[in-house]
Protein backbone atom coordinates (compact mmCIF):
# COMPACT_ATOMS: atom_id res chain seq x y z
CA UNK A 1 0.00 0.00 0.00
CA UNK A 2 1.22 3.49 -0.87
CA UNK A 3 2.03 5.84 2.00
CA UNK A 4 0.03 8.74 0.55
CA UNK A 5 -2.70 8.57 -2.09
CA UNK A 6 -4.42 11.52 -3.78
CA UNK A 7 -7.61 10.56 -5.60
CA UNK A 8 -9.28 12.91 -8.12
CA UNK A 9 -8.52 15.98 -6.02
CA UNK A 10 -10.06 19.29 -7.14
CA UNK A 11 -10.57 22.81 -5.86
CA UNK A 12 -12.43 25.70 -7.47
CA UNK A 13 -12.14 29.35 -6.52
CA UNK A 14 -15.30 30.81 -7.98
CA UNK A 15 -15.05 30.01 -11.66
CA UNK A 16 -11.32 29.25 -11.51
CA UNK A 17 -10.44 25.55 -11.46
CA UNK A 18 -7.08 25.68 -9.70
CA UNK A 19 -6.67 21.90 -9.36
CA UNK A 20 -8.72 19.48 -11.44
CA UNK A 21 -9.12 15.74 -10.82
CA UNK A 22 -5.47 15.18 -9.86
CA UNK A 23 -4.54 11.64 -8.78
CA UNK A 24 -1.19 10.16 -7.74
CA UNK A 25 0.43 8.11 -4.98
CA UNK A 26 3.83 7.88 -3.35
CA UNK A 27 5.81 5.35 -1.36
CA UNK A 28 7.73 5.85 1.88
CA UNK A 29 11.32 7.07 1.74
CA UNK A 30 11.12 8.51 -1.78
CA UNK A 31 11.57 11.98 -3.24
CA UNK A 32 8.47 13.03 -5.19
CA UNK A 33 8.61 16.29 -7.15
CA UNK A 34 5.73 18.42 -8.42
CA UNK A 35 6.64 20.67 -11.34
CA UNK A 36 4.85 22.86 -13.84
CA UNK A 37 4.68 26.43 -15.16
CA UNK A 38 3.74 29.34 -12.91
CA UNK A 39 0.04 29.09 -12.11
CA UNK A 40 -0.07 25.34 -12.74
CA UNK A 41 -1.50 24.65 -9.26
CA UNK A 42 1.58 23.27 -7.50
CA UNK A 43 1.36 25.26 -4.27
CA UNK A 44 -2.43 24.94 -4.28
CA UNK A 45 -1.99 21.17 -4.37
CA UNK A 46 0.38 21.39 -1.39
CA UNK A 47 -2.15 23.55 0.46
CA UNK A 48 -4.88 20.98 -0.15
CA UNK A 49 -2.84 18.03 1.10
CA UNK A 50 -1.54 19.88 4.17
CA UNK A 51 -4.96 21.15 5.24
CA UNK A 52 -4.72 24.86 4.43
CA UNK A 53 -7.43 24.51 1.76
CA UNK A 54 -10.52 22.32 1.75
CA UNK A 55 -11.00 20.46 -1.56
CA UNK A 56 -14.12 20.89 -3.68
CA UNK A 57 -13.98 17.15 -4.39
CA UNK A 58 -11.66 14.16 -4.16
CA UNK A 59 -9.92 12.28 -1.37
CA UNK A 60 -6.51 12.18 0.33
CA UNK A 61 -5.47 8.99 2.14
CA UNK A 62 -2.58 8.31 4.50
CA UNK A 63 -1.90 4.59 4.97
CA UNK A 64 -5.29 3.93 3.37
CA UNK A 65 -7.21 6.17 5.81
CA UNK A 66 -8.85 9.35 4.57
CA UNK A 67 -7.33 12.56 5.94
CA UNK A 68 -9.34 14.88 3.69
CA UNK A 69 -10.45 18.03 5.47
CA UNK A 70 -8.31 17.58 8.58
CA UNK A 71 -6.85 20.77 10.05
CA UNK A 72 -3.10 21.40 9.65
CA UNK A 73 -2.35 20.68 13.34
CA UNK A 74 -4.18 17.33 13.09
CA UNK A 75 -2.15 16.44 10.01
CA UNK A 76 1.04 17.49 11.77
CA UNK A 77 0.23 15.08 14.59
CA UNK A 78 -0.07 12.35 11.95
CA UNK A 79 3.44 13.16 10.71
CA UNK A 80 2.93 15.65 7.89
CA UNK A 81 5.24 18.70 7.98
CA UNK A 82 5.96 21.44 5.45
CA UNK A 83 7.86 24.58 4.58
CA UNK A 84 6.58 27.52 2.53
CA UNK A 85 7.66 29.53 -0.52
CA UNK A 86 8.20 32.60 1.65
CA UNK A 87 10.24 32.27 4.82
CA UNK A 88 8.13 31.64 7.93
CA UNK A 89 10.83 32.20 10.55
CA UNK A 90 10.38 33.88 13.95
CA UNK A 91 12.96 36.61 13.51
CA UNK A 92 12.77 37.78 17.14
CA UNK A 93 13.92 34.35 18.37
CA UNK A 94 17.27 32.65 18.14
CA UNK A 95 17.90 29.84 15.66
CA UNK A 96 17.70 27.02 18.20
CA UNK A 97 14.39 28.31 19.59
CA UNK A 98 12.97 28.34 16.06
CA UNK A 99 13.81 24.66 15.66
CA UNK A 100 12.37 23.83 19.10
CA UNK A 101 9.04 25.36 18.05
CA UNK A 102 8.73 22.57 15.49
CA UNK A 103 8.63 19.97 18.26
CA UNK A 104 5.79 21.54 20.26
CA UNK A 105 3.19 18.95 19.22
CA UNK A 106 5.37 16.20 20.66
CA UNK A 107 5.66 17.82 24.09
CA UNK A 108 3.72 17.50 27.35
CA UNK A 109 1.77 20.77 27.38
CA UNK A 110 0.67 20.53 31.04
CA UNK A 111 0.47 24.17 32.17
CA UNK A 112 0.89 23.33 35.88
CA UNK A 113 4.10 21.37 35.31
CA UNK A 114 5.55 24.09 33.09
CA UNK A 115 4.64 26.92 35.45
CA UNK A 116 6.42 25.33 38.41
CA UNK A 117 9.41 24.01 36.45
CA UNK A 118 8.95 20.48 37.75
CA UNK A 119 11.89 18.08 37.23
CA UNK A 120 10.24 16.20 34.38
CA UNK A 121 9.73 19.42 32.41
CA UNK A 122 13.30 20.55 33.06
CA UNK A 123 14.68 17.22 31.80
CA UNK A 124 12.38 17.34 28.79
CA UNK A 125 13.54 20.82 27.84
CA UNK A 126 17.20 19.82 28.17
CA UNK A 127 16.69 16.75 25.97
CA UNK A 128 14.74 18.84 23.45
CA UNK A 129 17.54 21.41 23.21
CA UNK A 130 20.03 18.61 22.62
CA UNK A 131 17.82 17.05 19.92
CA UNK A 132 17.29 20.36 18.15
CA UNK A 133 21.00 21.23 18.37
CA UNK A 134 21.74 17.91 16.66
CA UNK A 135 19.15 18.72 13.98
CA UNK A 136 20.80 22.07 13.30
CA UNK A 137 24.16 20.34 12.93
CA UNK A 138 22.62 17.77 10.57
CA UNK A 139 21.46 20.51 8.19
CA UNK A 140 24.80 22.35 8.32
CA UNK A 141 23.88 25.06 10.82
CA UNK A 142 26.28 24.19 13.63
CA UNK A 143 27.81 27.66 13.28
CA UNK A 144 24.48 29.33 14.11
CA UNK A 145 23.52 27.54 17.34
CA UNK A 146 23.65 30.75 19.35
CA UNK A 147 22.63 33.13 16.57
CA UNK A 148 19.48 35.23 16.35
CA UNK A 149 17.39 34.43 13.29
CA UNK A 150 17.37 38.06 12.13
CA UNK A 151 21.18 37.94 11.83
CA UNK A 152 21.35 34.82 9.66
CA UNK A 153 21.85 34.85 5.87
CA UNK A 154 18.99 33.82 3.61
CA UNK A 155 20.46 30.45 2.66
CA UNK A 156 20.90 29.49 6.31
CA UNK A 157 17.31 30.50 7.05
CA UNK A 158 16.06 28.14 4.36
CA UNK A 159 17.87 25.27 6.08
CA UNK A 160 16.60 26.48 9.46
CA UNK A 161 13.03 26.03 8.21
CA UNK A 162 13.83 22.47 7.17
CA UNK A 163 15.37 21.74 10.59
CA UNK A 164 12.25 23.09 12.29
CA UNK A 165 10.02 20.88 10.15
CA UNK A 166 12.20 17.87 10.95
CA UNK A 167 11.80 18.57 14.68
CA UNK A 168 8.24 17.30 14.30
CA UNK A 169 9.76 13.91 13.35
CA UNK A 170 7.56 13.76 10.25
CA UNK A 171 6.78 10.83 8.01
CA UNK A 172 6.22 13.16 5.02
CA UNK A 173 7.99 16.48 4.50
CA UNK A 174 6.56 18.95 1.96
CA UNK A 175 9.12 21.48 0.70
CA UNK A 176 7.79 24.41 -1.34
CA UNK A 177 10.66 25.76 -3.48
CA UNK A 178 13.50 24.91 -1.06
CA UNK A 179 16.16 26.20 -3.48
CA UNK A 180 14.44 29.47 -4.42
CA UNK A 181 16.82 32.43 -4.12
CA UNK A 182 19.88 30.28 -3.41
CA UNK A 183 23.21 30.42 -5.22
CA UNK A 184 24.60 27.28 -6.93
CA UNK A 185 26.63 26.21 -3.89
CA UNK A 186 23.66 26.58 -1.54
CA UNK A 187 21.42 24.74 -4.00
CA UNK A 188 23.85 21.82 -4.07
CA UNK A 189 23.82 21.75 -0.26
CA UNK A 190 20.00 21.62 -0.22
CA UNK A 191 20.07 18.89 -2.89
CA UNK A 192 22.33 16.73 -0.71
CA UNK A 193 20.30 17.48 2.41
CA UNK A 194 17.04 16.38 0.79
CA UNK A 195 18.58 13.11 -0.33
CA UNK A 196 19.88 12.47 3.20
CA UNK A 197 16.41 13.13 4.61
CA UNK A 198 14.83 10.67 2.17
CA UNK A 199 17.53 8.09 2.89
CA UNK A 200 16.61 8.35 6.58
CA UNK A 201 13.12 7.10 5.73
CA UNK A 202 11.22 10.40 5.48
CA UNK A 203 9.21 10.83 2.29
CA UNK A 204 10.01 14.20 0.69
CA UNK A 205 7.58 16.00 -1.62
CA UNK A 206 8.91 19.14 -3.27
CA UNK A 207 7.83 21.91 -5.57
CA UNK A 208 10.91 23.27 -7.30
CA UNK A 209 11.76 25.27 -10.43
CA UNK A 210 15.42 24.24 -10.58
CA UNK A 211 15.13 21.46 -13.17
CA UNK A 212 18.68 20.24 -12.71
CA UNK A 213 17.95 19.68 -9.03
CA UNK A 214 14.58 18.05 -9.72
CA UNK A 215 15.94 15.64 -12.33
CA UNK A 216 18.93 14.72 -10.19
CA UNK A 217 16.99 14.18 -6.98
CA UNK A 218 13.52 12.84 -7.74
CA UNK A 219 12.39 9.23 -7.72
CA UNK A 220 9.05 10.26 -9.27
CA UNK A 221 7.84 13.49 -10.85
CA UNK A 222 4.30 14.83 -11.28
CA UNK A 223 3.80 17.50 -13.94
CA UNK A 224 0.86 19.90 -13.62
CA UNK A 225 -0.42 22.29 -16.26
CA UNK A 226 -3.40 24.60 -15.69
CA UNK A 227 -4.36 22.59 -12.62
CA UNK A 228 -4.44 19.27 -14.45
CA UNK A 229 -2.10 16.29 -14.33
CA UNK A 230 -0.07 16.38 -17.53
CA UNK A 231 2.36 13.55 -16.85
CA UNK A 232 3.89 11.40 -14.13
CA UNK A 233 6.91 9.15 -14.08
CA UNK A 234 10.64 8.91 -13.53
CA UNK A 235 12.94 11.80 -14.39
CA UNK A 236 13.87 10.08 -17.65
CA UNK A 237 10.23 9.51 -18.62
CA UNK A 238 9.23 13.07 -17.84
CA UNK A 239 12.26 14.53 -19.61
CA UNK A 240 11.34 12.70 -22.82
CA UNK A 241 7.57 13.32 -22.71
CA UNK A 242 6.65 15.52 -25.73
CA UNK A 243 3.73 17.15 -23.89
CA UNK A 244 5.97 18.12 -20.98
CA UNK A 245 8.59 19.51 -23.33
CA UNK A 246 5.96 21.61 -25.11
CA UNK A 247 4.25 22.85 -21.96
CA UNK A 248 7.13 23.39 -19.59
CA UNK A 249 10.67 22.24 -20.26
CA UNK A 250 10.97 23.91 -23.65
CA UNK A 251 11.92 22.53 -27.07
CA UNK A 252 15.66 22.53 -26.31
CA UNK A 253 15.14 20.07 -23.43
In brief, what are we looking at here?
The protein is an alpha/beta fold and 253 residues long. It is 38% helix and 23% strand.
Characterise the protein shown here:
The chain is of the alpha/beta class and 253 residues long. It has a domain at 93-165. Helices cover 38% and strands 23% of the residues. The chain contains 10 helices and 10 strands. The chain has a 6-stranded mixed sheet, sandwiched between helices. A 4-stranded antiparallel sheet has the order 2-1-4-5, covered by helices on one side. A hairpin with a 2-residue loop joins strand 9 and strand 10. Helix 3 packs across helix 5 (119-138), helix 3 packs parallel to helix 6 (154-166) and helix 5 crosses helix 6 (154-166). The longest helix is centred in the middle third of the chain and has 20 residues, at 119-138. The radius of gyration is 19 Å and the shape is globular. Mean pLDDT is 89; it is low at 110-116.
Give the overall form.
globular
Helix content: 25-40%
Instruction: List how many beta strands DSSP finds.
Output: 10
Estimate what percentage of residues fall within beta strands: 15-25%
Spans with pLDDT under 50 lasting ≥5 residues?
110-116
Distance between the termini: 34 Å
Query: What is Rg?
Result: 19 Å
Overall mean pLDDT score? Answer: 89
For the biggest sheet, the summary is: 6 strands, mixed
Strand order of the largest sheet: 6-7-8-3-9-10
Compute the number of helices: 10
Amino acid sequence: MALLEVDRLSIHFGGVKAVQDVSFSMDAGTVYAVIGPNGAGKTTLFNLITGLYQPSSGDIRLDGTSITGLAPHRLAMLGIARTFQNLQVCMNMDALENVMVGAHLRLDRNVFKSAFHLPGITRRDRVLREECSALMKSVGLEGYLGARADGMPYGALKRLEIARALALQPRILFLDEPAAGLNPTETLEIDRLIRRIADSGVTVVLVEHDMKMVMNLSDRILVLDHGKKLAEGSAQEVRQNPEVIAAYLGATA
